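User: Can you predict the 3D structure for this chain?
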Amino acid sequence: MSTLSRLLSSSLCFSLLLACGPIPEDTASAMESQTAFIEGDDSHSQGTQLHGTSVEAIKYADAAVMYEGSRRAAKLLLHRGTLVADMTLQQMGTTPSLVACLQPTSGPERSCGFTLAGQGVCTPGTQVTLSSGTCSGTTGSCSGKPILRVCADEKPCEHQGPGYLGNGVPTPGSPLECTIHCPKVTFTCPASGIYTVLKAPMASTQIDWSAPVKTLSAPAFPAKVKRLTGQQLIGARMGARRQSELYFNTTLEIVDALNANSVSIPESPGIWDSSGDTFLYRVKVRPPPTTGAPSVDLCTTGVDPVMGWGWSVPLSGTFSNEGDRVESTEHFTFACDPGVLAKCYRWGYKPWLDGISSGGVTMAHWACTRMARADYCGNGTSFTQDGTKIRPWDSMNPSIIPAPQSPPPADMTFEAGWRPEGPACLSHWRWQHLPAPCVQLNPPKYDQNGHITNDCRLYPTMPRCSEICDSAQEAKQHYQSIVFNESKSNQLPQP
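Assistant: Here is the predicted structure, written as structure tokens:
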């Protein structure tokens, strides 16, 4: 079939939903890439893709980041709509000051007899103050006459040498307060946001001493990890799980990252997410080295054919091929735009708005993914065409998408109320033109006069009554729907 023939075939299928039937995700991806630039999209349009990629889940653990030219172990986390990595801090190299003194010596300038107190993290350019207590010998404070030395980054340093940030020494007190004030040091946080602290007794021969180092402001000292975010994650690698497969030797790598408030889209309002709370990632799939295969983009389905790749957004939890969401502390999801996981996030249903525990927004996002794919069967099968226009809204308080204040356009009709498991009810119009024989709801039954005899709104106690709703109010009142939509019909007009 020629390219033109395929294009015409796709366009015809775009109009004849009943004739085309459900579209498998892999088949739909090819059509989506062809039709996306023909009809385009708006801020509320359906799609056939769920993940937008065959990669189903990403591991939080066993990741690696690129830091100062070296690959370092890290654990991934989600903070709002941003992926972060906690990189374990470590001592990088050594210095003469960490070697035992061969002869008695004293003072903060010496180059022996120090030990590592730990490492801390801070905001570059800010002032940091470290203390080892107030009066020597009091509870929680230093004892003896300890000294402190602060070095930039993860490297120990010498007094006034490369990386040296400052020192603290004990100072005389007054008889009314204490004999000796414990050492304190103030320094400017280095560009890396990491500092290393060494401690020692004032005299190398001193045995009884202690220096419980702490900061006078957050974050606390010592720190175990350095948190990386945003473009600091470029080069990070992580393990992936493909749909319907066990783990195998495939790795994902972040090759670019941008705040979503700087990513333009051809849909209203023109910005992916203006809040500033979301980062988008360009991710490559790295096949096993033994295959010799090149890396490919994670997101290619339905994207701008000129660009050839798409952004992904991180989401908590995982989604199966059937569209079922599972909470997980081991995996998260990279949702490729324009898959509906990303679409529903972009429309405002951001699961992290619930806080620590999943709640109403998470459930609304899940219900939205059913609505945005016209998943009438609640099993992951899409019964729509990419780009089909819809007007969604929800019953949340306050609403994320408010109810429309104007009647639907002439080519749009109220379609359904939705819950996370699928449609909770369907309108008369949708029941009359339903292409999905697998829907779990009960179909209307008509008498000889064309009246429905099993309408749940009229006969709620009737066994196998039909879940009918012709408005959002009915969908919420009778069937506890949480999102609703009006939809444009994909059928050709009757002659």
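The chain has two domains: 3-61+231-488, 96-223. Residues 1-41 have pLDDT under 50 and may be disordered.
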